[in-house]
Amino acid sequence: MTNAILEINGLHQYFEKGTPNENHALKGIDLQLREGEFVAIIGGNGAGKSTLLNSVAGSLPVSYGQVKIAGKDVTYQSVEKRAKLISRVFQDPRQGSAPLLTVEENLSLALKRGSWRNFWSSGVKKNERNVFKQKLASLGLGLENRLSAEIGLLSGGQRQAITLLMATMRQPELLLLDEHTAALDPQTSATVMQITDKIVREEHLTAMMITHNMQDALKYGNRLIMMDHGQIAIDLNAEQKQGLTVPDLLAMFKEKSGTALTDDAVLLSD
């Protein structure tokens, strides 16, 4: 596929292989993401969403198959090696930033990511501070006036919004969003999703978002994938998912998989 930022070929993942508890978690996944695609991945518990994301991130060794990012084979590369290509935002807002550092210090670390020579240079330069203010102002949360605040003192939503800025500061080849609004209340979650959509579109990023929220999966991104028992059951482009409702998606899932989705975490998230 031309302009493929992510290529997954024949990916299988096993847990406890060869034991009575063997779990074939991913069953030959083939998936490509083109430059600028923003795919939302949904499915019930045990569908394989997190296993897929962790396989791409490198935090889960691949059993069989191949993972390529921006044309580079990263199948057996460590998380650290892949960090030059990937940025990840986790479910817990506390995971993406250093709580005792200020907002501007966290952003400065993100800006220096990959530049180890200057990593420990002290202070935040004036031109950097101006860039940070501009980027924070674009979030619409008033955070441009909180540069010197300890990031650990901010709310979960504010912190997650800053983590998104940090993750995209150096324009990764691939942005992984790991249920990054799941720990937030509905109103804050909606705000963070709007910010996410704005950043991904304006920076023309390629992004993979794991979510339990079917409404978000329908509303955001230009592609929707629904997984079931380690396989891709549904793969819709922007045109195909336009105008679909959650009942439409559930009916489509039942038709493709042969069973109705019964996971309360998904069904109650709307």
Query: What's the name of the CATH homologous superfamily of the largest domain?
Result: P-loop containing nucleotide triphosphate hydrolases
Counted up, domains total 2
CATH T-level topology of the largest domain: Rossmann fold
* CATH classification class of the largest domain: Alpha Beta
- Spatial ordering of strands, largest sheet: 6-7-8-3-9-10
How would you classify the helix and strand content by structural class? alpha/beta
Q: From the coordinates shown, what is the CATH architecture of the largest domain? A: 3-Layer(aba) Sandwich
What radius of gyration results from the CA coordinates? 19 Å
Shape: globular
Q: Pick out the low-confidence regions.
A: none
> Percent helix among the residues?
25-40%
Tally the helices.
10
Most strands sheet? 6 strands, mixed
β content, as a range? Answer: 15-25%
Number of beta-strand segments: 10
Query: Could you give the order of the helices and strands?
Result: EEEHEEHEHHHEHEHEEHHH
Mean pLDDT, to the nearest integer, reads 90
